[in-house]
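Section 5.1 Outputs to date
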Amino acid sequence: MEALLCSGNPHTPVVSHFTVLRGSHFDYERCLTLTRVNKEGLLTNMATTSEQRAQRLGRVLRPSAKVLPEHARAHNRALVLQQLFHFGPISRASIARATGLTRVTVSDLVAVLISEGLVEELGTQTAGRVGKPATLLGMRTSAFHIVTVDLTAGDIMRGGIVTLTGDVVDYREQPVDGQTGQDMTELVTKFCRLLVSASKQPVIGIGIGSPGVVDAAGTVVNAPNRGWYNVPLAEILTSTLGIPTHVANDADTAALGELTFGGADPDGLLIVTVGEGVGAGLLVDGSLVRGVNHAAGEIGHVQVVEDGATCACGRIGCLETVLSAPALHEALVNRSTEDAAAHLAYVGKLLGTLLSPVISALNIGEVLLSGPADVLDGPLRESVVETVNQRTMPAISSGLSISMATLGQDVVLRGAAVLVLSGQLGVS
């Protein structure tokens, strides 16, 4: 199976063949590993020591699907790219030893990757070796870009042009102006087209973090705040823009961003995203938790106040009616500093009460809050900590960390890059 890779002039993409892993066997939740990546990239220091590489390497996200025989070449290609992405510069022989592939297979795959412009030879390694010098290989991580969009906020869309190693090199915002449904879809399409045209490098894919329930194919099943119901967003953008597009729930995307570029622990991570709505992304025992209907983490639509406001979903007193960014900012208008702190602590207690059974049932070790720090990081977060400590046994709470997301407002933008990396290259 093949997809299109933009090459040459980024403003007038030239089509070339490129292996696609999304939709066949690999996608963002099926990739072999998700790791931290050095901000400066993996190709900057050919003399990197094994100790430095070990420090750079993150934790492993376990595969959730079998590799079938018909997908063997795509699987092997991903194995090679994984080694280059995380451990490069590295020789063909070292790749063969690390992956268990034959040297002939590795050489064939490397030749194809070089012809596609993804990999390059960097010279020979002579120090500390006996015999013929090894030719080192590296991914051309600076030669390509990824376009990413964060739809978490209600009034704006955030967009980024991101390197393969997760750096946001261009950041833009687009007002939403209350648009929903088809109008919102068209606005997202125009914004993505603008970002692609602004990239100074070929764009290998588009990644989008969307609120609501999103299935594995990138269809937004249910996003009330956006007026989207069964909208095949990934398919629409791929067809319209001619660039492979990957769409996932924004909280799941944030979790992948924190894991890959923020160094979070996949054994027990819960990230709560606060924007126009409220959601949660979960990583447990090395796997992303999606749920039977792709709705795992939809905590924003759990009732926490019996006589509260009406939610966008039509229910009364959902968590997002008190914890969403608009709800918090509206509630704090004209309040004194003391009253504002008391209200934030109240909302934090509601969140802590809701999270406590989840944290206990799954033995979560790390909770991250992602959203406006001016309202989340302070009395609200402190109240969450206090409430969870009161409501869980010491064996659970003693090792628990509850803090702000390390990637700040870029967490979904950088996580959306992971969707493309794993979906198009099989690496992350």
